[in-house]
Amino acid sequence: MTAPLASILTAPGTNRDGDVAFALQLAGFRTEQIDVRQVGSAPNSLRESAAVVVAGGFSYADALGAGRLFALELHHALHDVLQGAIQRGVPVLGICNGFQVLVRLGILPGAGQQAALGHNESGQFACQWVRLAAPSSRCVWTTGLTDGVDCPIAHGEGRFTCDDTTWASLVANEQIALQYTSGNPNGSRGDVAGICDPSGLVLGLMPHPENHVLAHQHPLHSRNQGEPARLGLELLRNGRLHAVA
Q1: Is 208 designated active site?
Q2: What residue spans of the chain are helical by DSSP H?
Q3: Domain total of the chain
Q4: Who is most buried in 11, 22, 118, 119, counting CB within 10 A?
């Protein structure tokens, strides 16, 4: 049986696409990387994808704000195709800069909802390992993650903010997909690390699950013998399970 295809969207400055490709392949996908500037040369690629991932990094050096120029490129080249994929039931994942892109595109949180990812409350770049909990939500990517996920963060603009109306909507619709449990590293409202859209297909998160897909990648692996592995790999496997369902 042929493995489902996951398309990884990149732009100049994306630097986690290789890590994402390795992690997705470990989760059971075959992968392709699509430079948003050259998407015209492969117009059908996204239409054949079983999953879409917007990779992390510092697209366009975060000029004019994190993810802004990448979002403009995507809106011009792929917005309708991406929306069509979601309507077909294709799971979409935005990691770190990819989360910022999906928010700027208006795909997250969803229609009629307004949110932003601002500068960290500390005013400093955050680079550390965090523990995430997956509360009950409609997100297909986080189903069954009862032990949570341990993975690193690396961002300067990861503070999730929204108005009270949007917050009430996110809570009522079960769109809060991931929360920090080891201390809030950026001041996000409600300890939010990741949210999904109303369909549950689209997940955006600031941490990097692709960087904890093997147990020995955890810096405390040798001390954590006997504890749950809390691999980010399980999140990616959930995406694959949905893609082939």
Answers
A1: yes
A2: 17-26, 68-77, 79-87, 97-105, 164-172, 233-244
A3: 1
A4: 11
Return the DSSP state at 189: G
**Residue range of the domain that includes 146:** 5-244
| Catalytic entry in 151, 155, 162, 210 | 210
More confident: 229 or 173: 173
The helix (run of H) or strand (run of E) holding residue 32 is: strand 30-35
Please report the pLDDT score of residue 141 as a whole number.
99
Catalytic residue chosen out of the listed positions 73, 96, 162, 218: 96
Selected catalytic residue, list 73, 155, 208, 234:
208
Measured between alpha carbons, how far is residue 217 from residues 132, 179, 224, 228, 241 in Å? 16, 21, 12, 14, 24
Mean pLDDT of 194-208: 98
Neighbouring C-beta atoms of residue 216, cutoff 10 Å: 8
| CATH (domain of 228) | 3.40.50.880
Q: Is the peptide bond before 109 cis (omega within 30 degrees of 0)?
A: yes
Told to judge if 48 belongs to the known catalytic residues of this protein, a careful annotator would answer no
Distance separating alpha carbons of residues 35 and 31, to the nearest angstrom: 13
Helices (H) and strands (E) in the chain, counts: 6, 11
pLDDT in tens, 10-59: 988 888 999 999 999 999 999 999 888 776 555 566 788 999 999 998 77
